[in-house]
Backbone:
């Protein structure tokens, strides 16, 4: 019988390690067997095992520390880019503890960028909410939201916090018929680093979202996520048009 091709062996090694991670036998933070031990256990070459571990590291499943070993990486929560979701629901669904700290809730005059985002005139009155969302006591999202008062006149009267979030409230009173999502990488400001409790070397994923109802912009929000604690992604069917491109 012919020996499996090198690529098939590498996939076998990767599947073996992945199976240990998915089953929970190797838990986040665990030091996994050394490369040499896996070579002996799997009966494969060091190069084959190394490639499997390297790719799992690049995918964020493993963390390799020079001179120490390879550890199971902590999993990152993921938000869906194709839907308007409430972060509190996501955190609770994972079986974790949710907390929200409201830093500011008030009315102010819109600056030129905010007015443009909400399709209002500069200086127009807008509602502004700034808060931090926590998962098991760790800051995972900074929410900086502006709302058109004409679309949600009672926004400032809401008891936003652990039991009511702005996304939940707006979806309760308004059914958006259009939304815009823009994702960008960003170096957080000193204030953002302080609020998210991250150091200057930590990059952030920023989601800019606008929603409309009947032709009017309802809200513009900037959601800042520490890249080591969160990820953004979606899964959708591929149509014929995409297959042909």
Residues:
């Amino acid at each position: 019988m012919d020996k499996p091709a090198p690529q098939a062996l590498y996939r076998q090694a990767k599947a073996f390690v992945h199976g240990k991670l998915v089953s929970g036998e190797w838990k986040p933070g665990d030091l996994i067997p050394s490369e040499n031990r896996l070579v002996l256990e799997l009966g494969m070459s060091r190069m084959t095992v190394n490639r499997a571990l390297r790719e799992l590291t690049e995918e964020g499943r493993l963390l390799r520390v020079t001179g120490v070993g390879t550890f199971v990486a902590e999993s990152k929560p993921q938000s869906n880019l194709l839907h308007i979701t409430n972060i509190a629901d996501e955190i609770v669904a994972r079986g974790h503890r949710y907390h929200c700290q409201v830093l500011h809730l008030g009315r102010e005059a819109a600056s030129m960028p905010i007015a443009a985002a909400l399709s209002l005139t500069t200086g127009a009155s807008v509602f502004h909410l700034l808060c931090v969302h926590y998962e098991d006591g760790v800051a995972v999202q900074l929410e900086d939201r502006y709302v058109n008062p004409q679309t949600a006149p009672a926004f400032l009267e809401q008891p936003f916090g652990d039991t009511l979030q702005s996304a939940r409230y707006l979806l309760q009173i308004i059914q958006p018929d259009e939304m815009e999502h823009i994702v960008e990488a960003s170096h957080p400001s000193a204030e953002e680093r302080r609020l998210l409790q991250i150091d200057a070397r930590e990059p952030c994923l920023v989601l800019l979202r606008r929603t409309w109802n009947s032709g009017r912009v309802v809200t513009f929000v900037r959601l800042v996520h520490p890249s080591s604690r969160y990820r953004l992604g979606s899964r959708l069917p591929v149509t014929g048009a995409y297959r042909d491109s």
Observations:
- DSSP finds eight helices and ten strands in the chain.
- The chain has two domains: 6-72, 78-233.
- The mean pLDDT is 85.
